[in-house]
Amino acid sequence: MQDKQYLMMPGPTPVPPSVYAAMSRPVGGHRTDEFARMHKRIVEKLKRVFQTQNDIFVITNSGTGALETAIANTVSARDKVLALITGNFGERFANIARAYGAELIEVNFGYGKDVDLSVVEEKLRQNPDVKVVLATQNETSTGVCNDIAGIGALVARTPALLLVDGVSGVGAIEIKVDEWGIDMLCTASQKAFMLPPGLAMVSVSDKAWGVVNNNKAPRFYFSIPAFKKVLDKWNTAYTPNVTLFYGLEAALEMMEAEGLDNVYTRHALLARATRAAVKALGLRLLAEERYASNALTAVWGPEGIAADDLRKIIKNKYGVIFAGGQGEVKGKIIRIAHMGFADKMDVIIAVSALEMALAEAGYPVQLGAGIAAAQEVFLGRV
Ligand SMILES: *Cc1c(COP(=O)(O)O)cnc(C)c1O
């Protein structure tokens, strides 16, 4: 059926009607008082999401642009960079640093595992000259949520900067930039912020500024000093995606109306229901429960059935769009997103489609078992 789709992949995610409505306004000028006032309001709201007093720059980029901004402004050729990798996006962050000539120390914890703090402590002790540490808050390729507070406490004792990829976590999972010692937090519009792709956000700590202002890597579009030069007038260095700024303000207003704590609690509930449903169907989760993501759930494909074939049935017959595996787990897993504009009935739809596709693929499924498990969670019975 035309226009009927259930977008349940970890980005882009569904956009709420009120955000679309805000973006249907005629585009305005970006060197105007109206834009400046809106820009200021947006950054004030973002500071509450990031839990920071640091400057936050809203830039017209995808999430990878935010990651490259962080690297281009802190890493010079031959700098030692410690990359804490738990999946495909951790690998990407490391690869950006490599592109800027970093000398990398890559620690790969494996797909489906989280960062082991004792290893981080040891690596930092062995390499006192590390300039930058790269970490992923929510590893979207595996549905693993890392202990950024724990990593932050270790890095804060060293001269190194902590750069965090929060592209799929911020807005779904609480993060405390100042308390946890995050020197740069990167995120983007199309995941938990309920917007189309196109905006990225980066915060910069006092500890980071010293490095940012003197960094030797070539940078132009990604230059944070260039962004900073015009921020006191709430201007942007280049033409921003003004339409997405309208949407971002509406999305942030929605999040504040719900209450940020309630937003995080909702994500935790949806994740718990999804995991309960998947387990009730006899499928295995990629991540252990103690560090499983609240923003998305990664599920191993059932024995003998290709995960991507199952996804094809789910998409073609039911219009439900899940994501597949990336990197090491390509073709082996299904990723179900429950982030941003997602609520209880979205989980019910996702699980229902999964059950029907499993039955059609010949997997011995008891129809309704997964849905019942999710319903038990929603009714507060488990
Ligand atoms: C989506 C994502 C990115 C990449 O963002 P793009 O907008 O596709 O450039 C980076 N890191 C994580 C953790 C992500 O989920």
TrEMBL record:
The keyword Cell inner membrane does not apply. GO terms for biological process: glycine biosynthetic process, by transamination of glyoxylate. Substrate binds at residue 335. Its cofactor is pyridoxal 5'-phosphate. The keyword Oxidoreductase applies. Keywords: Oxidoreductase, Pyridoxal phosphate. Residues 6-326 form the Aminotransferase class V domain. Pfam families: Aminotran_5. PROSITE patterns: AA_TRANSFER_CLASS_5 (PS00595). InterPro entries: Aminotrans_V_dom, Aminotrans_V_PyrdxlP_BS, PyrdxlP-dep_Trfase, PyrdxlP-dep_Trfase_major, PyrdxlP-dep_Trfase_small, SP_NH2Trfase/AEP_transaminase. It comes from the Bacteria. The modification N6-(pyridoxal phosphate)lysine is found at residue 191. GO terms for molecular function: alanine-glyoxylate transaminase activity; L-serine-pyruvate transaminase activity; oxidoreductase activity. Belongs to the class-V pyridoxal-phosphate-dependent aminotransferase family. Heterodimer of a large and a small subunit. Soluble hydrogenase catalyzes both production and consumption of hydrogen from suitable artificial electron donors or acceptors. This subunit catalyzes the tritium-exchange activity. This is Tritium exchange subunit.
